[in-house]
Amino acid sequence: EVQLVESGGGSVEAGGSLRLSCAASGYTYCTGWFRQAPGKEREGLARIITYSDNTYYADSVKGRFTISQDNAKNTKYLQMNSLQPEDTGMYYCAAGGMICGLDSDNYGYWGQGTQVTVS
Questions:
Q1: pLDDT at residue 19, as a whole number
Q2: Closest Cα to residue 63, out of 50, 46, 42?
């Protein structure tokens, strides 16, 4: 069982940046970042395949967010630039297997989330 711990959330003004971290207790084949805004469904934002460094983004964040990793630390990152109020929400990282997309149903392990507020 993999444990995931997110950090790096906070409050920022529109146009600002934040970098989220997701520390895993072990190797994860696929890691995704998800966001849930109040009253909305959880949205997949980006994912990375560890061994290949292959990344994929939702259209809503493409060009603004970057997912990356430090394999020595079993840590994934989400660099978020040009943040807008609509980016406000709870951000989660999740670990999944071979089916590595942005569908939350394919992820079996989740962190506790970190709040991002953009005003």
A1: 98
A2: 46
